[in-house]
TrEMBL record, chain A:
Residues 181-407 form the SUF system FeS cluster assembly SufBD core domain. Belongs to the iron-sulfur cluster assembly SufBD family. Residues 23-170 form the SUF system FeS cluster assembly SufBD N-terminal domain. This is Fe-S cluster assembly protein SufD. One of its GO terms (biological process) is iron-sulfur cluster assembly. It comes from the Bacteria. Pfam families: SUFBD_core, SufBD_N. It comes from Acanthopleuribacter pedis.
From TrEMBL, chain B:
Keywords: ATP-binding, Nucleotide-binding. It comes from the Bacteria. Gene3D superfamilies: P-loop containing nucleotide triphosphate hydrolases (3.40.50.300). Residues 2-246 form the ABC transporter domain. SMART domains: AAA. PANTHER family: ABC TRANSPORTER I FAMILY MEMBER 6, CHLOROPLASTIC (PTHR43204:SF1). GO terms for molecular function: ATP binding; ATP hydrolysis activity. Belongs to the ABC transporter superfamily. Ycf16 family. Pfam families: ABC_tran. This is Fe-S cluster assembly ATPase SufC. The keyword Ion transport does not apply. InterPro entries: AAA+_ATPase, ABC_transporter-like_ATP-bd, ABC_transporter-like_CS, FeS-cluster_ATPase_SufC, P-loop_NTPase.
Length: 442, 253
């Protein structure tokens, strides 16, 4: 298999380290690595990867980032402080190159809420069932590679009716000088009945070298649980980031999934949502902002397996220069999933003639009493609106920026975490125009 | 204040304005009446600087400067305001955000200090009160989902806040019920002053019961064919546009 002859270092890494760690993990890791070895990286021949080539990713002999390569603690602190939430007393976990850094982290957990290490989680009775499920859910073997190589994880367990008031913030930082460093961040949220939590995962990097983060998040929502999962992908523009979120929703549970693809030369975000109990509800929203030659791919698969579920997808993209955006959203409604209510919307704004978007809805409906709406639009800035703004005194650039802001703002204003809204508005200004015209609501 | 001389404008190669002349002084209210398709909106869009129109001849001077040389935002800075016949919806930003950006842009052009959000709010309140218009619409996205009347009222609110020297109102009365019409015309009347001129463009004589102009001009087929005092409106109402058109034809023939 060509993939493995190229990826010698990952292979070596696996053979040397698979024996380490908790016994419960070993068979799962071995299966997962075997899966990756047999399947390799996805290619554009795979339907789910039609618009995204992993060629550049496969040409590097990736090596697991090491702890030694970390920069000075002061630099790290500054980087983390720049990205961390400031005004909520959150629990913050900082992973540097895949290693949890307690010296940069802080914990404020209420009763009934626990954070487990991967080793401790492996002792829980639900563990092997939940942990491996990710690998089977997608045709891509990238999540399996994460399972094989992740040797730390954030496992958030919420007891029944426990409530995490402030967000749990997880910062995944890749840093160092190695141009081939790869990390395998892993997060699990296990919310028991009626539990509630918001989890923010921020992916950042430092330095001008290429690096790869191949991450997986798993969300298990028991009956009536409510989980908001926010993904802020702020990788450097040389970086590769492949991520997959797998959510399992039991009866009457509610998931809000918010996905911001901002950085990365290549960013691919898979979101697999399974509505496995009646009355489950999922809101899956995303904003992707591409410029230069960025490639940003959103891949959403929602499976309605039980009746009376609802799911709403709302994705917006803004693409400038030669950026390439992808949105593919699949809604599957099983025969038993009567009274499903689902909607999907993808709207894109192209700011340059060379920017490109591929958007493709896919509906697969086996029930007969369902509502399934979908729509996609792609356009440029509205000339009538530009003129209207200019006639009110705004210079052409300011008017353009104002409309870009307005387009993104419709999505941003609904985001769960206020500081993230502000951060995104700043990114908009930085990327697509000068600050002058943008006037966030006071 | 405004001097339009022999203005010729084409749209997609087709002549629409065919030698239009109009002179307005400070503080004057002029009304242009004309049938559908006579070029009323073309005139107002050309004054505001829409680039889809090709100016093939003539000149426009506004407050001593060549208007046609200026970019749309510069015209706004100089004190021109157009109330659109069809105001544009801008989802995603509130009227407050929109007007803050607009007023600060205009202030910057005029060399005035920018205002912060609190100062803005104070200005908005004062001016809305003066124009007797409710500010509530500014909390909503600009014109999104507004009824026809709400849109026109919102244009008047923008006018009150931006304090133009010349306001061009393109069919600000069309499609309004009598209550909305009263709100709109009350706003205009409240804002009349010796320093501010209005060019009120309408299809219907009804508006002139509420806004009494100093001068009335009749626009037919891209030219002003008749000008007079407010009594001209009554004559028009009685005899209809056909009368002017006939009249022009006999004069021309
Ligand atoms: N953008 C345009 N493209 C083509 N024709 C136009 C356009 N705008 C105006 N026209 C034509 O110009 C003429 C005058 O239009 P307009 O100025 O809108 O008239 P009014 O406002 O008096 O009803 C009409 O015949 C109209 O069809
Ligand atoms: Mg018109």
């Amino acid at each position: 298999m060509s993939t493995l002859t190229v990826h010698n270092k990952l292979h070596e890494d696996f053979s040397q380290n698979s024996g380490a760690g908790p016994a419960a993990l070993r068979p799962l890791r071995e299966q997962a690595f075997a899966r990756f070895a047999a399947t390799g990286f996805p290619t554009t021949r795979d339907e789910a990867w039609r618009f995204t080539s992993t060629r550049a990713l496969t040409q590097v002999d990736w090596q697991r980032a090491d702890q030694q390569a970390q920069s000075q603690l002061d630099d790290l602190k500054a980087t983390v402080a720049h990205h961390a939430l400031k005004d909520v007393a959150a629990t913050t976990l900082v992973f540097v190159n895949g290693f949890l850094r307690e010296d940069l982290s802080q914990r404020r957990l209420p009763a009934g809420v626990r954070l487990l290490s991967l080793a401790d989680a492996a002792q829980e009775d639900w563990f092997s069932e939940y942990y491996a499920v990710a690998d089977a859910e997608t045709a891509s073997a990238l999540p399996a590679l994460n399972t094989a190589l992740a040797d730390s994880a954030t496992v958030l367990v919420l007891d029944a009716e426990a409530r995490l008031e402030n967000p749990l913030e997880i910062i995944h930082l890749s840093c160092g000088i190695s141009p081939h460093r790869a990390t395998f961040p892993r997060t699990m949220v296990v919310a028991k009945p009626m539990a509630e939590a918001t989890v923010l995962e921020t992916f950042i990097g430092s330095g001008g070298e290429a690096y790869w983060q191949n991450s997986v998040s798993q969300l298990h929502l028991a009956d009536g649980a409510r989980v908001t999962h926010v993904l802020a992908e702020l990788a450097t523009e040389q970086a590769f980031h492949t991520h997959a979120t797998f959510a399992h929703l039991s009866r009457d549970s509610k998931l809000v999934s918010e996905n911001m693809l901002i950085g990365g030369a290549l960013a691919r975000n898979d979101i697999h949502v399974n509505l496995n109990g009646p009355g489950a509800e999922a809101h899956i929203n995303g904003l992707f902002l591409g410029h230069a030659r960025q490639h940003l791919d959103n891949h959403v698969v929602v499976r309605h397996n039980e009746p009376h579920g609802c799911s709403f997808q709302n994705f917006r993209g803004i693409l400038d220069d030669k950026a390439h955006g992808v949105f593919t959203g699949r809604i599957f409604v099983a025969q038993d999933a009567q009274k499903t209510d689902s909607a999907q919307s993808n709207r894109n704004l192209l700011l340059s003639d060379e920017a490109r978007i591929d958007t493709k809805p896919q509906l697969e409906i086996y029930a007969d009493d369902v509502k399934c709406a979908h729509g996609a639009t792609t356009g440029q800035l509205n000339q009538d609106a530009l003129f209207y703004l200019q006639s009110r005194g705004m210079a052409p650039d300011a008017a353009r920026n104002f409309l870009i802001y307005a387009f993104a703002h419709e999505l941003i204003e609904k985001l769960a975490i206020r500081e993230l809204r502000e951060h995104l508005e700043a990114v908009l200004v930085e990327r697509f125009g000068q600050a002058g015209a943008l006037a966030p609501e006071a | 204040m405004l001097e339009i001389k022999d203005l010729h404008v084409n749209v997609n190669g087709k002549p629409i304005l065919k030698g239009l002349n109009l002179t307005m002084g400070e503080g004057e209210v002029h009304c242009i009446m004309g049938p559908n398709g006579s070029g009323k909106s073309t005139l107002s869009q050309v004054l505001a600087g829409r680039d889809a129109y090709e100016i093939t001849g003539g000149s426009v001077t506004f407050r001593g400067k060549d208007l046609l040389e200026q970019e749309p935002h510069e015209r706004a800075g100089e004190g021109l305001f157009l109330a659109f016949q069809y105001p544009v919806e801008i989802p995603g930003v509130s009227g407050n955000q929109f007007l803050r950006a607009a007023l600060n842009a205009v202030r910057q052009y005029r060399g005035e200090d920018e205002l912060d959000a609190a100062q803005m709010m104070k200005v908005f309140r004062e001016r809305a009160k003066q124009a007797k218009i409710d500010l509530a619409s500014l909390k909503r996205s600009v014109n999104e989902g507004f009824s026809g009347g709400e849109k026109k009222r919102n244009e008047m609110l923008q006018m009150a806040i931006l304090e133009p020297r010349l306001a061009v109102l393109d069919e600000v009365d069309s499609g309004l019920d009598i209550d909305a019409l009263k709100i709109v015309s009350d706003a205009v009347n409240a804002m009349r002053s010796a320093q501010r001129s209005f060019l009120v463009i309408t299809h219907y004589q009804r508006l002139l019961n509420h806004i009494v102009p100093d001068h009335i001009h009749v626009l037919v087929d891209g030219q002003i064919v008749k000008s007079g005092g407010k009594e001209l409106a009554l004559e028009l109402e009685e005899k209809g546009y056909a009368w002017v058109e006939e009249h022009t034809n006999t004069v021309a023939g």
